[in-house]
Amino acid sequence: MAGATALILVGGLLSVFLYTSLGHPDEVFAVSHTIPRGTTITADDLTSLALASGQRSPAISTSTPSEVIGKVTTVDLPKGSLVTPAAIAATEQIPMGRALVGLSLKPSQLPAERLVAGNRVEIVPIASNTIGDASVTTSTIPGVVFETSINQQSGTTIVDVYVSETVAADLTGRAAAGTVAIYLTGANG
Questions:
Q1: Looking at the chain, which terminus has fewer C-beta neighbours within 10 angstroms, N or C?
Q2: How many domains does the chain contain in total?
Q3: In which domain, by residue range, is 56 found?
Q4: Average pLDDT estimate for 24-39
C-alpha cells in the first residue's frame, strides 16, 4: 500500500514538472524591427520569443518589462534579435573623457560614402579669411561616428561624433560656424 502511494506521488510530481517545463516555455523579449543605437525602447519595438525548456539565454524575460521599456539601446539591434542587459542602458552612456558633438555638414564637407556608427574619422577645422576664401589648418581632430541623419529641409547631413573632451568646446563653436569638414580614415577597413 505504501509503495503504491509513493508511486502515485512520484507520478503526480513528474506530471507537474513536465507540465511546467514543457507547457510553459520561458518568454523573452525580442526586437520586432531594427532599432538604431541610442533609441529609447517602447512596447511597439518589442515582441516575445519562447525559449525551449532548459535553454539558457542572457535575454530579458517578458515578466520584467520595466527592465526594457524606456531604456536606451547601446548598440544597433537588428529585427529578431534578443534584448540583453548588455544591449541597453538607463540613459545614453558617453565614454569617460569623451564628448558627443553634432556636426551639420554640406555634401562638400564630407565623403560621398555614407558614414555609419563606429566609423573612425578625422575632423578638419577650416579657417575663413577676410576675403571669403577658406584655408585648411594642418591639425585634425580624431573622432568616432555615433550616428548620422539627413536634414531634409537643408540637405545637410548631421553627424554626431565622439571626440576628446579637451577639444569639444572649440569643435562645437567651429561646427556652429560651419567651418569643419570630415573624412574617413584607413582604420575603418
A1: N
A2: 2
A3: 23-89
A4: 84
Sign of the dihedral through C-alpha 183, 156, 104, 33? negative
What is the pTM assigned to this prediction? 0.59
Average the pLDDT over 82-92 and give the result.
85
Query: Does pLDDT of 64 surpass 50?
Result: yes
Nearest to 62 by CA among 32, 96, 100: 32
Beta-bridge partner residues of 152: none
Task: Report pLDDT digits (tens) over 67-81.
Answer: 999 888 888 899 999
- Do 104 and 136 belong to one domain? yes
Closest-CA residue to 109 (of 182, 172, 158): 182
Q: Are residues 144 and 70 in the same domain?
A: no
